[in-house]
Amino acid sequence: MIPPFAYVRARSIDEAVALLARPESRPAAGATDLIGCLRDEVFTAKAVVSLGGIEAMTGIAETADGGLRIGALTSLTTIVKHALVAGRYPALAQAAASVASPQLRNQGTLGGNLCQRPRCWFFRGGYDCARKAGDTCYAMQGDNRYHCVFGGSTCLIVHPSDTATALTALDAIVSIAGPKGTRSVPIQQFFVLPEKDMTHENVLAPGELVTTISLPAPRAGLVSVYRKARARASWDFALAACAAAITIEQGKVTAARIVLGAAAPIPWRVEGAERMLIGRRLDEPTRARVAAAALNGATPLEHNAYKVAMLRGVVSEALGSIG
Ligand SMILES: Cc1cc2nc3c(=O)[nH]c(=O)nc-3n(C[C@H](O)[C@H](O)[C@H](O)COP(=O)(O)OP(=O)(O)OC[C@H]3O[C@@H](n4cnc5c(N)ncnc54)[C@H](O)[C@@H]3O)c2cc1C
């Protein structure tokens, strides 16, 4: 049973920040992950601060420079259905569409999707693991079939969010409000590896909130795509995923960002593979070389060697859908 907690509705970002300054207060957006975490004792809460009534954190708007500003409380369904997202940033629309089930996409928000806690079955399963400030990562010796092949060190989670992978390829900016004011962080610096912080997946300090996610204006020739492999066609997290944002001018690649999902504790950018694309046509031999290079340095665990081939496959599929 979930221990009792106070439930408070914030009406503004300032009010939410003030309420979250109290000890053991947790923000709730759609609460689809929060309730599971409280139930599974991933963490506790003396107070849950609902963000649902904060108008300034909802909706999608075009910015003066042709980019998009998405409120952190915007539902995943709204993102999937938005014409500008689908038209200009299809990787994000496809990633959001691949999350869970229609009910969870109706209720779940973009900010909550980025800030959801990992799905490692030891972390969720009542083990006092390293990510909960214990002294062991149980996935090192235990069943690690769903764990990482890059970036693991002292904790072997994979980041669970589909939209995080797409937003990293799209070079998004995360805006944050907290007790010390506001700040903006490129999404690649928002997520942190266990070697930097073992118990947090991102740079949010206590009491800080994600308020908006901004996307830069798409350059001419930008094409983006998200591909996800999973055990079931719906209601399932990625076993392997790839988001690619490729700019093609006069038939040749002039810029590329390729990001692997379900591969590492953070969305995992493969810059060596990206560089191999620059100046080339996206033909089949190039795609095959780049997909192979994307997995250079992967270190599979005892039970997840299958992921290397699967990740190579989603990279190849993602590039193939562009080229
Ligand atoms: C059966 C199932 C299948 C799923 N499958 C997938 C999947 O395939 N892909 C995928 O990506 N996800 C999947 N999910 C996760 C789901 O997408 C998340 O539960 C949802 O996106 C979280 O959104 P929310 O608004 O409900 O977040 P909440 O549950 O409200 O919050 C999640 C966490 O983030 C914090 N938080 C929320 N908003 C903010 C904010 N603005 N700033 C700072 N912290 C915040 C909360 O305190 C909480 O710790 C699945 C979940 C379930 C239950």
Walkthrough of the structure:
This protein has 323 residues and is of the alpha+beta class. Among the domains are: 58-115 and 161-215, Uridine Diphospho-n-acetylenolpyruvylglucosamine Reductase, domain 3, CATH 3.30.465; 222-322, Enolase-like, domain 1 (2-Layer Sandwich). 30% of the residues lie in helices and 21% in strands. The protein has 13 helices and twelve strands. It has helices spanning 13-20, 34-39, 76-81, 83-88, 90-97, 102-107, 110-115, 121-124, 162-169, 187-190, 271-277, 284-294, 306-322; strands at residues 6-9, 25-28, 47-50, 60-62, 68-71, 173-178, 181-186, 209-215, 222-229, 240-249, 252-261, 268-269. The strands form three sheets. Strands 4-5-8-6-7 form a five-stranded antiparallel sheet. It has a four-stranded antiparallel sheet with strand order 9-10-11-12, sandwiched between helices. α5 (90-97) runs antiparallel to α9. The chain is globular and about 60 Å long. The N and C termini lie far apart (52 Å).
What descriptors fit this protein?
single chain; 323 residues; alpha+beta; Uridine Diphospho-n-acetylenolpyruvylglucosamine Reductase, domain 3; Enolase-like, domain 1; 5-stranded antiparallel β-sheet; 4-stranded antiparallel β-sheet; 13 helices; 12 strands; 30% helix; binds flavin-adenine dinucleotide
